Amino acid sequence: MLSILFRKAFSSTSKLIAISIMGFLFVGSVTANAATSASMKTLSLQNLERERAALIQDILSPALDIQQRQQQLIKRQRHLTDMERMVMRDERLLVSTSPLVKNAFKQYDLTFLVHAGAENKRSASEHWLSTMNVTSDAVLNTQVGYRK
Fold first, then answer.
1. SS3 for 47-108, per residue?
2. What's the first-to-final CA gap in the chain, in angstroms?
3. CB count, 10 Å around CB of 24?
4. Which of 142, 120, 140 is nearest to 130 (CA)?
5. Residue 73, pLDDT score
6. Distance (Å, whole) CA 83 – CA 77
7. What confidence score (pLDDT) does residue 10 get?
8. Residue 125, SS3 per DSSP
9. Contact of 107 with 45, CB cutoff 8 Å
């Protein structure tokens, strides 16, 4: 008789634990899916930011000679053009409240370098440099050394 009560108690406790674990896993799954869904909404913009950063890195890279830099910039601008179009057409971004999305569209000239440059009849690199106020005179007047 004691064994029957023990089995009943153990099985009801096991059921309660199993239900609790399943509930916890379900809530965790829903939370993970919501987080994944939020990051999926901004995935196209994140890819654009990564490619834009690579373009800026190529602009500033001292390891590239002039010919290599031009080839890299042409290649990057083609990729960036396609990615900018994808982001501009991504309807998921319209409903996103992400600070990344808000900031990206607030700073259109820096986010969409190829399109903003084309509107000003410049390349993406020329547009970025002018937006950052880097001019030929400023570069020529710089001195190598530590700041004082």
1. HHHHHHHHHHHHHHCCCCCHHHHHHHHHHHHHHHHHHHHHHHHCHHHHCCCCHHHHHHHHCH
2. 89
3. 10
4. 120
5. 93
6. 10
7. 45
8. helix
9. no
Q: Take residue 83 and report the two structure tokens written for it.
A: 């990615």
CA-CA distance, 17 to 130, in Å (whole number)? 63
| Residue 28 structure tokens | 């965790």
| Residue-wise pLDDT tens digits, 46-81 | 999 999 999 999 998 999 999 999 999 999 999 999
Is 41 or 129 the better-scoring residue by pLDDT?
129
Spatial neighbors of 39 by CB under 8 A, at least 6 apart, are 46
- 87: nearest Cα among 130, 34, 131, 51: 51
Residue among 3, 138, 124 nearest 70 (CA):
124
Give the burial string for 40-64 (b: 16+ CB within 10 Å, else e).
ebbebbeebbebbeebbebbeeeeb
Greater confidence, 100 or 9?
100
**What are the tens digits of pLDDT across the range 86-141?**
999 998 888 888 898 999 999 999 999 999 999 999 999 899 889 888 888 887 78
Nearest to 124 by CA among 109, 135, 138: 109
